[in-house]
Each structure stands twice: as structure tokens, then as C-alpha cells.
Amino acid sequence: MSRLIDPRLRTSLPDFWPSRCSIKTVTTTASASGQKVRTGTTDVAGMTSIQCRMSVTTTERPNDQVTTEARIRGSVARRNLKLSGYFPTIQPDVMVAVVDGVEYAIYSNEPDSEHFSTRLGVDIIKP
Q1: Confidence (pTM)
Q2: Distance, C-alpha 70 to centroid of its chain
Q3: What domains can be seen in the chain, in order of their start residue?
Q4: pLDDT digits (tens, 9 = 90+) for 74-119
Q5: Distance between CA 6 and CA 83 in Å, rounded?
Q6: What percentage of the chain's residues is helix, strand, coil (to nearest 5)?
Q7: Under a CB-based contact definition with an 8 Å cutoff, are residues 86 and 111 in contact?
Q8: Rg of the chain on CA atoms, in Å
Q9: Using an 8 Å Cβ cutoff, are 116 and 87 in contact?
Q10: % of residues, the chain, pLDDT over 70
Q11: What CA–CA distance (Å, rounded) separates 39 from 37?
Q12: From CA 38, how far away is CA 15, in angstroms rounded?
């Protein structure tokens, strides 16, 4: 089967991927009451220093159909993060993306059918 996107395209457009992303798993421990408490993050093997491109920020409006957890109290700004590569194993709500030193919560993962790139929906939570 022929591919729609030639894999050489990735290396021919070095400026298309201006940033670097690392995917990390959130580590937790149980509190005295049995609640999960975040203790930190751990790098996911094979998912560090991935070439990427971040979209502009969009702020969720009150009429948007979005479900957020009760712990989010401030405004939620959403972005799309395009990764150079096929990463179907990234798990929303379990992993986070760190782009140029800034951590983002992942809420969706959409790898493309050509195995060329992966689009992640990420949140910036401002308390």
C-alpha cells in the first residue's frame, strides 16, 4: 500500500517542529484517607525530546460542551500539541506533556492513519 505522506517530509521541514516534548507518567501515592496524591512524574521510555509544534491557546467558553473535574476551579485554556511521530500509547489523564519546560495535562490523543504524527489535546489550568 502506498503512503499519502512521504516519511522524508519529516526531515525536510526542520523548522516545522520548533519545540521539544517529553511525555511523562504521573506518579501517585495513597494518602491516609485512601485518596490518590500526586508525588511527581516519570519519563516514558521512547517518548522524550520528541519534535513538536504547539497551537495557539483557546479559552473554554461557558457554552462549550466540555466535562472538567470538580477540582478545577479556574479558567481552562486548551491547546493542540502536534508530535512528530506515531504515539498511540499515550494515555490521557494518566500522562502529561512537558513542552519547553511547561507541563500540560493531556485530555485526548489522536494519532493519524499515516503514522506520521500524533495530535494531543492539552490543558493549561490556571487556578
Answers
A1: 0.75
A2: 21
A3: 16-126 (2.40.10)
A4: 556 788 999 999 999 999 989 999 998 889 999 999 998 888 889 9
A5: 16
A6: 5, 50, 45
A7: yes
A8: 16
A9: no
A10: 74
A11: 6
A12: 36
